[in-house]
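Aim 2 progress update. The chain analyzed this quarter is reproduced below.
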Amino acid sequence: MALVIIGTGLAGYNLAREWRKLNPEKELVIITRDDGRNYSKPMLSTGYTKGKTADGLAMQTATQMAEQLKAEIKTFASVSAIDAAAKTVTVDGAVIAYEQLVLALGADPFQPPLAGDGLERVYTVNDLMDYAKFQQAAHGKKNVIVIGGGLIGCEYANDLSNGGFSVQLIEPVGRVLPALLPPVASQAVGNALETLGVTFRFGVSVQAVHKDGDGVRATLSDGRDISGDIVLSGIGLRPRIALAKAAGLTVNRGIAVDRTLATSQADIYALGDCAEVDGWVLPYVLPLMAGARALAKTLSGQPTAIHYPVMPVQVK
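Predicted structure tokens:
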């Protein structure tokens, strides 16, 4: 039976690489609901700065990754169920047996509860296909309303400004990056973004988004309306836990795992943005890479607890 990995983001592919080094010939099946192209997710918020399309950000196709990893990669595939007792997953109606299963499911963008008739003009960018959709929708536009002044929102505000867009950023707290930086450093980042032309609207939230001709009109919590061409929401992520919960795995904010990344069910593991390691959800690259290296050893018969070194968060 095979090692089955669900997910082809940074977590899934990095684990596959590390595991393949230790298991040159064993069967590997990777399942993804998207096109399976390999790319670096942090680069999604530098695409306009570097003049890159989605195709330009992609490093390998799913076919190339399958050859590199000696794996079967099922793209645009939907996993509907996990049977932990039978050790199977159901994929588009077909049942696949596994020896070990890794959930590298990632996280979904938090969707604010917005009213209005213009919600189809509110975009999130969480993967390469999202980036392609946003680029297509933003083509020819000039004014972007960005919801959220945390890490995601600020990175996109910076990138879009570098790409020639006028950006209005909405943040309920009175400064940018409030969860990551002390006030002095936060002010420095805010000043730099203002220099690029970003307009801040602090102390308010977006309540509704309405169509306004070809653009949008956003109603703020203080009753004011602001106009733009398109909206990009970047206010955080929520681990994908529905599949694990339905399979009877213990879930909290994320899929609960111990320091070996083992879930509450035998031979099922979780890695990356979907995992909650000893109570911590760490949606950053360095914890993910450390987890992939440790889990590859565990899956290869060398139980290895993950230990996190000092891991700075880079603000691009």
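The mean pLDDT is 95. Residues 257 and 294 are 13 Å apart (CA to CA). These observations will guide the mutagenesis experiments scheduled for the next reporting period.
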